[in-house]
From TrEMBL, chain A:
InterPro entries reported in the protein's UniProt record: MetI-like, MetI-like_sf
Keywords recorded for this protein, A-Z: Cell membrane, Membrane, Transmembrane, Transmembrane helix, Transport
Subcellular location: Cell membrane
UniProt-annotated stretches for the region Disordered: 1-26
Name of this chain's protein: Spermidine/putrescine transport system permease protein
TrEMBL record, chain B:
Protein name listed in UniProt: Spermidine/putrescine transport system permease protein
PROSITE patterns found in the cross-reference section: ABC_TM1
Species name: Azospirillum rugosum
InterPro entries reported for this sequence: MetI-like (IPR000515), MetI-like_sf (IPR035906)
Sorted UniProt keywords: Cell inner membrane, Cell membrane, Membrane, Transmembrane, Transmembrane helix, Transport
UniProtKB/TrEMBL annotation, chain C:
Source taxonomy: Bacteria, Pseudomonadati, Pseudomonadota, Alphaproteobacteria, Rhodospirillales
Pfam family, one: TOBE_2
Name of this protein: Spermidine/putrescine transport system ATP-binding protein
Keyword Nucleotide-binding: yes
Gene Ontology MF annotations: ATP binding
Annotated organism of origin: Azospirillum rugosum
InterPro entries per the UniProt record, alphabetical: AAA+_ATPase, ABC_SmlMolc_Importer, ABC_transporter-like_ATP-bd, ABC_transporter-like_CS, Mo/tungstate-bd_C_term_dom, P-loop_NTPase, Transp-assoc_OB_typ2
Keyword flag Transport: yes
Length: 310, 266, 350
């Protein structure tokens, strides 16, 4: 059945309508969808667009230690950030942490999703619960766990030295290593979810087909499974990268006041130094970077893998 | 389906260990009998759980978090249902753009939203109020509710609504008697997911909460920044126990995977 | 006076004409089928009558009143949907009662009418069941009862039997016909299954690409197809390309070296000869020569694929003990002049 014959015009290409000859009688304009979305639209206009616009304007104001926020319009905060080595270091560190966390999540999360899919029930459901469950537990509680493991109790160092892996304790608290480990723990469930979703679309018979054609299990994994899971890994990576680059609670607890990242920098400017315009500029840069990366990467993935997953 | 080899199972075990270690340590440390952070080597004690009761600010923050989550997710669901029906049932100019806008808070870092709301609420005089918390939470959790309700509405056979209309039901009666009962599982899981996201939110809330109105995660975060002691471990452990309990119930009711992967209903 | 009138009904989706100037009249109490392949516009037509789609042009009147001016929930039509569209959260009885509730029928009357309707479709004992726990055929009957109980001025059936297995479908065809006789409701049935249309309808409307090809009683359409499309769509047929010529006595068509007299007056040039497989016989004398490419036993009959100079030809012979040619045997086939139809043009232009 074609789209129209079976149900309605919903699945018709909307672009075709623009090229249509004028109908015999003017079609009734349907206002219902606009009315239905109006409450949410109004909410977003007031509570999303306006605050973000105000933040943008705030980032153009200047700030003096004694004068407070000045109602002038200038790009000083942005030039400060672009030219000052202090900010460079913080943004570079944020980027480095986000890249490392993304890589670790891909390396750990993708195989885990695959292993999970090959498990039999009820183990599969149980393990999935354990893997996804932490998503529901507050980030603060989870990060506290790492702070306890790294610092006060020193369990990790005791264990590592006990099995003879290291001779002297490794410093985890207030280091990038610690932040990367804790953030990987916080974000890896997103990667598992994303890869899991793409594995669900995979026909299990395809693997058997490859095996029957004489491929070794590893070859099947590399030539048949992996290519089909790549979009899942990529979209998971986008999510993880975006969340890692703007993460706040974990770097704030594990990194402390000394090891700043972009988000904790903005927090300090706002709530400690009280230089709101500079904090707003950091936030705007973070927002732009986030949107560019998410939208850009999604476009790329869609273009590259459109044919595979239609 | 094929079985996992020994290497895969070792990897799996290590992975689960990595995921569970920090959560377990919190729960273990919470039972220490010492006055400082330590493993409960000298026997288990509930003294730190009892200590929570002596810190009313934690109890109050917990109650505020529950109320905030309930109100904001109810509002988010209220906004989402008509919007989801518009998107699922109609083809109209601007549909793609509106959908993208509704999901856009997912793309905005919470730190940015925190700053934006702090600025906005101080300007309009809502700074540090509970109403401000509710409004900001509605915005960030709406996409989660919308996604699940949208999935449920899209998955529903359109001709069922047409059938109701052909039998003489008005649009409102059709919605009340037919559409709503059928998308209810999606609405309920949307509410739950929204509630969880509201309850756990810390990054944005830390900017707009005030000492008088704050949430439990923010309270915990601020406390940890000053000092880590068995009390926060006990609070976290209590939170973890409750989450696990809720999780088991949810998994029974809807399936956790369905909730998180984002497919509304069968 | 006709009961339902479709007047130059048109529906456009973008540049595509789904329904093109469709005009049709239906008498009260008639069961008429809209028959055609996927995308021919039959369901679109039904949706416009029901009010789920706005026509781009044209008029629909029912019993003299303009139907398009009313909203779908004010039209009072009964509709049986392809997916049945039962309310899954209501029992069979609640489903049937829904339309009566919308009409504010008092409780006692409602219960009685629901019971009668379920009785009519043979589900008297199933009122408390939920649709999920019913078979496809039972769900179909609930859908029918739900549509009939509101005493609709018109009953629209959208591919009502397409989700049933072959045996159940035959049962439901007989059932539908019985119910239609009993209640006398005017019905429009949309289907792509020609056997279903023929079995049930007083008249069939054969549609193709948004246009009506023929409106006729089933037997008439089968025996006297108005176009090659109709001939091909209503059951199996053979289309043979030939040449029309005028000579002395009248019109003739040449097919693979054999000339057949044509009753109608057609212009000289290319022509198409159609003949039903069951009308073709193996003959000893003059006819179209060929050889048996394949033969398939189908239980009550044999199906032959004959390769001739005019192209492949399908022949159906009853399995009644007669001696039939074997595969690869050379044969000559023929048919009576009154069993064939001839049209000007080429087979491709059907």
């Amino acid at each position: 059945m074609t789209a129209v014959d079976s149900q309605n015009a919903l699945s018709m290409d909307p672009a075709a309508d623009t090229a249509a000859p004028p109908p015999d009688k003017p079609e009734r304009r349907n206002w219902a969808p606009y009315l239905l979305s109006l409450p949410a639209l109004a909410l977003y206009a007031v509570l999303l667009v306006v605050p973000l616009a105000m933040t943008l304007l705030l980032s153009l104001n200047s700030f003096g230690f004694y004068t407070g926020i000045q109602d002038v319009w200038q790009l000083g905060n942005y030039t400060d950030i672009v030219t000052d080595d202090y900010f460079h270091e913080i943004f570079l560190r944020t980027f480095r942490i986000a890249v490392l966390v993304t890589l670790l999540c891909a390396v750990l999360g993708a195989p885990e999703a695959y292993v999970l899919r090959r498990m039999k029930s009820p183990w599969r459901g149980l393990c999935l619960l354990v893997v996804l469950g932490p998503l529901l537990i507050s980030v603060v509680s989870r990060t506290l766990g790492w702070a306890l493991l790294f610092g006060s109790t020193g369990i990790i160092n005791t264990a590592l030295m006990g099995i003879g892996l290291i001779a002297t304790p490794i410093e985890f608290m207030y280091t990038e290593t610690g932040v990367v480990i804790a953030l990987t723990h916080v974000l890896v469930p997103f990667m598992v979810l994303s890869v899991w979703a793409s594995l669900q679309r995979l026909d299990p018979q395809v693997e058997n087909a490859a095996l029957s054609l004489g491929a070794k299990p590893f070859t099947v994994l590399r030539r048949v499974v992996l290519p089909q899971v790549v979009p899942g890994i990529l979209s998971g990576s986008i999510i993880v990268f975006a969340l890692a680059a703007s993460a706040f609670a974990t770097p704030a607890i594990i990194g402390g006041r000394r090891l700043k990242v972009a988000a904790t920098l903005a927090y300090d400017e706002f709530l400690n130094t009280l230089n709101w315009p500079l904090g707003a500029a950091v936030a705007i840069l973070l927002l732009i970077a986030n949107v560019v990366i998410i939208v850009g990467c999604n476009r790329l993935i869609e273009r590259r893998y459109k044919q595979v997953f239609e | 389906m094929n079985r996992n080899g020994p290497i895969a199972l070792i990897f799996h075990t290590l992975f689960l260990g990595f995921l569970l270690a920090p959560i377990l340590i919190v729960c273990v440390v919470a039972f220490t009998s010492q006055g400082y952070l330590s493993l409960p080597t000298e026997g288990l004690s509930l003294r730190w759980f009892k200590a929570i009761a002596d810190n009313p600010e934690f109890v109050r923050a917990f109650r505020d978090s529950l109320v905030l989550g309930a109100i904001s997710s109810t509002l988010a669901v209220g906004f989402s249902i008509p919007a989801a029906l518009a998107i699922a049932r109609h083809q109209f100019p601007g549909r793609e753009a509106i959908t993208a806008l509704f999901l856009s808070p997912l793309m905005v870092p919470h730190i940015v939203l925190g700053i934006a709301f702090l600025r906005f609420f101080t300007q309009i005089g809502l700074g540090g109020t509970f109403a401000g918390l509710v409004l900001s939470h509605v915005v960030i959790i709406l996409p989660f509710a919308l996604r699940l309700i949208l999935a449920a509405s899209t998955g529903m056979d359109r001709s069922i609504e047409n059938a109701a209309a052909s039998l003489g039901a008005t649009s409102w009666t059709t919605f009340r008697r037919v559409t709503l009962p059928l998308i209810l599982p999606g609405v309920a899981s949307g509410w739950v997911l929204a509630f969880i996201n509201s309850f756990d939110e810390v990054t944005m809330t830390v900017f707009i909460a005030s000492p008088e109105t704050t949430t439990l995660p923010v309270r915990l975060f601020l406390y940890i920044q000053d000092n880590i002691d068995p009390l926060v471990a006990a609070v976290s452990a209590a939170l973890i126990f409750m989450t696990v309990g809720a999780m088991l119930v949810l998994d029974r009711l809807y399936g956790l995977e369905r909730l998180l992967v984002g497919r509304g209903q069968e | 006076m006709p009961y339902l009138v479709l007047d130059k009904l048109t529906k456009r989706f973008g540049q595509w004409l789904a329904v093109d100037n469709l005009s049709l009249t239906v008498e009260k109490g008639e069961l008429i089928s809209l028959l055609g392949p996927s995308g021919c516009g039959k369901t679109t037509t039904l949706q416009m009558i029901a009010g789920f789609l706005d026509p781009s042009g044209g008029r629909v009147t029912l019993d003299g009143a303009d139907l398009l001016a009313k909203k779908p929930n004010e039209r009072g039509l009964g509709i049986v949907f392809q997916s049945y569209a039962l309310f899954p959260h209501m029992t069979a009885a609640e489903n049937v009662a829904f339309g009566l509730e919308m009409r504010s029928i008092p409780r006692a009357d409602r219960d009685r009418m629901v019971k009668d309707a379920l009785q009519l479709v043979g589900l008297g004992a199933f009122g408390d069941r939920y649709p999920r726990r019913m078979s496809g055929g039972q769900q179909q009957r609930v859908a029918l009862a739900r549509a009939l109980v509101i005493k609709p001025s018109l009953l629209l059936l959208d591919e009502p039997l397409s989700n049933l297995d072959a045996k159940m479908r035959e049962e439901m065809q007989i059932e539908l016909r019985r119910i239609q006789r009993t209640v006398g409701t005017t019905m429009i049935l949309v289907t792509h299954d020609q056997a279903e249309a023929m079995a049930l309808s007083d008249r069939v409307v054969i549609m193709n690409k948004g246009k009506v090809e023929q409106v006729a009683a089933p037997q008439d359409a089968y025996d006297n197809p108005a176009s090659a499309f109709v001939a091909n769509f209503l059951g199996r047929t053979n289309l043979l390309q030939g040449t029309l010529r005028q000579d002395g006595g009248g019109c003739r068509i040449d097919v693979a070296g054999t000339a057949w007299p044509v009753a109608a007056e057609l212009p000289a040039g290319p022509g198409v000869l159609t003949v039903r497989p069951e009308k073709v016989t193996f003959v000893d004398g003059a006819g179209v020569p060929g050889f048996v490419r394949a033969r398939v036993f189908q239980g009550t009959q044999w199906l032959f694929e004959i390769q001739t100079d005019a192209g492949p030809l399908t022949v159906i012979r009853q399995h009644d003990g007669q001696i039939l040619p074997a595969e690869n045997e050379r044969v000559t086939v023929g048919w009576r002049a009154e069993d064939m139809r001839v049209m000007a043009g080429t087979a491709g232009g059907a």
